[in-house]
Design goal:
Shape: elongated
Largest sheet: 16 strands, antiparallel
Structural class: alpha+beta
Radius of gyration: 47 Å
Number of strands: 16
Distance between the termini: 175 Å
Strand content: 35-45%
Number of helices: 4
Order of helices and strands: HEEEEEEEEEEEEEEEHEHH
Strand order of the largest sheet: 1-2-3-4-5-6-7-8-9-10-11-12-13-14-15-16
Length: 338
């Protein structure tokens, strides 16, 4: 009877674990890699050790959620990724079936958190990004609530100070991108305090504190402490005198070169004016209007005709001179022959 009771107990235990297809050890336990279909409709495929999920595996819930990661004695432990039915996702560290350590959570509405976790809650330092506004909270968390020193960053300004129960409290400052800072303090108004005293018997949630500005200053930028070499003006008198003399010589040289450069510039302008008419609009597309020359000032056709006329006149004059010289030479030769 005792043997039968043990067999029945093993069958009941196996039925509780569901159907299994995989490796076993010498004692018949699930050990190694295998696949199981649990009685509740969930499935697991991965590593086992002494009939417990241990090591790397994938657990799929009948709801549509599933986990891919490490297990330790049937619990999520180590690094893993959990995909939730609503579309959200957590990827990071797990301890004893809870989000614990560093992890990144992407929520169904598009928001995201990256930072430290403790017992399934945002706890420690982390960054929460709001998708709709693009705002970002960077700072402390306690049991899933914003608390401690933090910075709330918006599109064109940011707030830096302390938070308690998800709201800013105490002294802080707003930093604006235009280059200024507004210092002040979040305080609870006197009216809110009076209402709380009257309603002590029925405590309610505290009203949001109000911002009271105290001063506006220029943006304080951090500048590295770098030692600069002393300038000539701050050096000894001799160094200052040498610097002044060098500046005077440079001024005289610049004045002398200025006259030469002005003449060269005038010649260059003339050359550019003449050369500008040889360029077509297709070859140059940078401000073609600057290279236009009036036809009344410079006409290539008219100038060519004038040059041809001058050449013809010079040719006629040279021909007349040549004929006169040839006639005198003929007369001299005839006189010598006689």
């Amino acid at each position: 009877m005792s043997d039968l009771s043990e067999e029945e107990a093993e069958e009941e235990a196996e039925a509780y674990l569901g159907e299994y297809d995989g490796e076993r050890n010498s004692e018949g336990e699930r050990h190694g890699r295998g696949k199981a279909e649990l009685p509740n409709g969930d499935t697991y495929e991965g590593e086992y050790e002494h009939s417990l999920r241990n090591g790397q595996g994938t657990y799929r819930f009948k709801t549509g959620a599933y986990y891919v990661g490490e297990y330790l004695q049937n619990k999520k432990h180590g690094h893993g990724t959990f995909y939730y039915p609503d579309g959200s996702k957590y990827e990071g560290s797990w301890v004893d079936d809870q989000r614990h350590g560093y992890g990144e959570y992407t929520y169904a509405n598009g928001d995201s958190y990256a930072g430290e976790w403790f017992n399934d809650n945002r706890h420690g330092q982390g960054t929460y990004i709001y998708k709709d506004t693009g705002s970002m909270y960077v700072g402390g968390w306690v049991n899933g609530i914003q608390e401690g020193e933090a910075e709330l960053i918006h599109l064109n300004h940011r707030y830096r100070g302390k938070f308690l129960n998800g709201t800013p409290v105490g002294r802080g400052k707003y930093i604006f991108d235009i280059g200024c800072e507004q210092h002040g303090e979040y305080i609870q108004s006197e009216e809110d305090k009076g209402e709380e005293e009257e309603e002590e018997e029925e405590p309610s949630s505290l009203a949001a504190p109000k911002w009271k500005a105290t001063e506006i200053t220029k943006l304080i930028q951090w500048v590295p402490n770098v030692e600069e070499a002393p300038s000539p003006s701050k050096g000894p008198p001799a160094a200052a005198a040498e610097a002044a003399a060098a500046e005077a010589e440079a001024a005289e040289a610049a004045a002398a070169n200025g006259a030469v450069e002005e003449t060269a510039a005038d010649e260059k302008d003339k050359m550019q004016t003449n050369a500008g008419t040889d360029e077509s609009p297709e070859d140059r597309d940078d401000e073609p209007s600057l290279h236009k020359v009036s036809s009344e000032v410079f006409s290539p056709t008219k100038d060519a005709e004038e040059e041809d006329e001058e050449i013809r006149k010079e040719g006629n004059e040279e021909g007349e001179e040549y004929q006169g010289t040839a006639h005198l030479e003929d007369e001299e030769e005839s006189e010598e022959a006689e």
